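COMPLEX REQUEST
Ligand: S-adenosylmethionine
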Amino acid sequence: MKNGQIPVDVPDDVPTSARAYGWMLGGKDNYVIDRQFILDTVQGFPECVDIARQNRAFLYRAVRYLVKEAGIRQFIDMGCGLPTNNNVHQVAQRFAPDARVVYVDIDPIVLVHGRALLADNSSTIITGDMRDQSAILERDDVVRLIDFDEPVAVLFLSVVHHLLDADDPRRILRTIIDKAVPGSHLCLSQVVCDDPARGATMSRQITAAGIPWRTRTPAELDSFLDGLEPAEPGLVNLLDWRPDPFQPPLEEAPEELASYLGITETSKDLYEYGGVLRKP
Ligand SMILES: C[S@@+](CC[C@H](N)C(=O)[O-])C[C@H]1O[C@@H](n2cnc3c(N)ncnc32)[C@H](O)[C@@H]1O
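STATUS: Structure written out below.
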């Protein structure tokens, strides 16, 4: 019943973020349970498909900015997700062939599929939990690829909503950037809702489906980021972060979700919010 070639030992009785999000981007490595989870979620939150795709398009623009304008050559991509087109190292190395990337994801399926596509001499993928960054920083590949005497960019793209308040998201977002040298960058995004009651319903529903989730308001995300300097245009709906109609397109959305594309043109209170911040 699987849609792509998933190894048999990966559990298929609960949805996972990596597989469900990957499906919205046009990926094939997912199960019925992941697709059904998205089909259920879009009943109440039809913006999700647009939001996922807008986030992934932002990734391209943000990494390009970090390489070309901020001069970053090393990246740690927390919660990197399943490989698709224009993964971080491909974008970064298009503009700076010497760029290095460590991909981290909690879901072991990302390692299974990512090994071939995300790892080479200058990039690697590890299974790790962003809530335990000391374990991540001790990994041999991290020590080999990341030089903390040089600026680093830490990416938390569309992952901050997976951090519950009890996880202390501020600490998690700032563990590396607070120790990194000036000129390092934090790049992040999460699903936000201007209507806290709707956001709370979304959090309850997705968490009940088995994926830890906390929709926040923009102000709640902002509160984690004091002391860092946002690059223009600041922390915004990602649609408004340096839009580029000529950037490379994403893979096509699956046919079952085509009717949800474009909903955020009229529905404006649920969106992916984020940006790029520099450590002064
Ligand atoms: C919505 S996807 C985002 C993927 C990618 N960052 C992007 O923007 O395209 C969220 C990813 O975060 C991963 N994730 C969730 N909680 C995590 C944790 N505690 N540590 C590491 N990865 C996590 C999931 O497995 C999933 O692959």
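REMARKS: Residues 17-18, 21, 55-56, 59, 78-81, 104-107, 110, 129-131, 157-159, 162 surround S-adenosylmethionine (CB under 6 Å). The chain is about 35% helix and 15% strand.
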